[in-house]
Amino acid sequence: MPVNVTDLTDLGVISVDLIVSYDTNVLTATGVTVTDTIAQDSLALSNIDDQNGVINIAMGRGTPFSGSGTLIFIVFDVDSNNLNDSSSLDIIEASLNGGDVTTETDSGKITIVDTPPPGTVVISVPKNLTVPSGTTTVRIPVNLSDVTGLDIISTNLTLSYDANVLSAIGATLTGTIAAGGAMFVNPDNKNGKIYIALLFSTPELFVLSGSGALVYIDFDVKSNTPNDNSLLSITQASFNSNLGEFTVVKSDGDITVNVVYGDVSSDGKVTPYDVRLILRYLAGLEALSTGQIKAGDVSKNGKLTALDATLIFYYITGLIPN
Ligand SMILES: [Ca+2]
Ligand SMILES: [Ca+2]
Predict the structure, then answer these.
(1) Does a structural domain hold residue 12?
(2) Is residue 74 part of a domain?
(3) Do residues 238 and 284 both lie within one domain?
(4) Which of 18, 40, 185, 269 is most solvent-facing, going by the fewest CB within 10 Å?
(5) Mind listing the pLDDT tens digit for each residue in 130-146?
(6) For the domain that residue 135 is a member of, what is the CATH number?
C-alpha cells in the first residue's frame, strides 16, 4: 500500500517519521520499500508491532525530498479471504523533520477482493439478504468476479442451505454472464443442497467473460417465521478441469426472514385474523411461536398483550398510521 505525499519540493524535508495502524485480522505488515517512489534513494527503516497492528517507519536522506507522489510502500500479507473484509489504514502520526514542517494526514482503507489478484476467481452469494415474512419465492444470484481471459468453459458448484427455511426449485441462466450455456440442476431438498453443472455452449463452446451473476437459483421460502435464517454456503465450486489453473475464493451468503410487525399469522399481511390470533393466544386457545410473538409485539415491550391486539386493530382500521 502506498503512502502518498503532496509536493515536498523546497520544504527542506530530510526526515519522515510515520506511524500507521491496520487491522491484524485482515493484514500482516511485512516491511517497507522505497523502490519506485520519490524516496528511491532514501534510508527507510520499519518496526512492526503485529500484535497491535502498528508499523513505525523512519526515513531519512542527505538532500531534501522533492516532488509529490508515493513516499513509501508498506508491504502487507493479506490474512483474510473473506470478501468485503476490510482494514482501515490510519496514519496515527506523521512528522516531517521531527515536526518542524506542518503536516495534515488522510487515512486509507483496504478491502479484500475488491480487485482480486490475477488468476483468482471469487464466487460469492450475497450476504445479509432479507425477505419479509409471507414471501413465497426468492431468486438468489451466485456471482463471479471478472473471469475475462481465464478460458472458463465449464463450472460445477454446490450451494448448501437450511432445508427448514428454503426449498430449491431450480435455476436459470437468463440474464447472467452464462446465458446460452447448458445447465444441469439437481436440487436435493432433503439435505439442503443444490448441484449445478454448467457447460458454456451455444451450441458452439464459448468462454465466460466479464463479471456478475453466473446463475440465479430460485427457492421456495418454506419458513415464514420471523428471524429464521439460512446460511447460503458454496460448499464446492470448480472451473474447467480444476487443475489449479487459478485460485478459487468462495464467499458465502445468508438470508433472513424479516419481521412484519403485526403479522402474527406470517402471511406477510396485517389483517383482523392476526388480531384474532393474539386474542386466542391470550385466552389460551392458541399456541404461538417465539417469532410470531415477536411479530405481534407491536408495542415492543417484549410481551404480547391486549394492547398489541388493540394497536394492530387500530392500524387495520386506519386509526393509527403504523
Ligand atoms: Ca397476517
Ligand atoms: Ca407488547
Answers:
(1) yes
(2) yes
(3) no
(4) 40
(5) 888 778 889 999 999 99
(6) 2.60.40.680
Residues 107, 125 share a domain? no
C-alpha cell at 167: 426449498
Instruction: Give the CB-side neighbour count of residue 120, counting CA atoms within 13 A.
Output: 14
Report how far residue 96's alpha carbon sits from residue 60's, in angstroms, rounded to the nearest whole number: 10
DSSP 80-143: ---TT-EEEEEEEEEEEGGGTB------EEEETTSSPPTTEEEEE--SSEEEETT--EEEEEEE
* Residue that the C-alpha cell 391486549 belongs to: 306
Q: Ligand 1: distance of its center to the CA of 3 in Å?
A: 56
- Average pLDDT of span 310-322: 86
Q: How far apart are CA 96 and CA 64, in angstroms?
A: 11
* pLDDT tens-place string over residues 143-202: 999 988 888 889 999 999 999 999 999 999 999 999 989 999 999 999 999 999 999 876
What is the b/e burial string over 135-166, where b = at least 16 CB atoms within 10 angstroms of the residue's CB?
beebebbbbbbbbeebebbbbbbbbbbbbebb
Does the residue 265 lie in any domain?
no
Q: Which ligand is nearest to the CA of 304?
A: 2
Domain that holds residue 47: 2-111
Cell numbers at 129, concatenated = 439478504
Looking at the fold, whether 21 and 66 belong to one and the same domain comes out as yes
Smallest Cα–Cα separation from 296: which of 286, 304, 287, 306? Answer: 304
On whether residue 43 sits in a domain, the answer given is yes
The CA 9 to ligand 2 mean position distance, Å, reads 68
Q: How many domains, in total, are found in the chain?
A: 3
Ligand number nearest to the C-alpha of 306: 2
CA of 167 to the centre of ligand 1 (A): 22
CB-proximal residues (5 Å) to ion ligand 2: 297, 299, 301, 303, 308
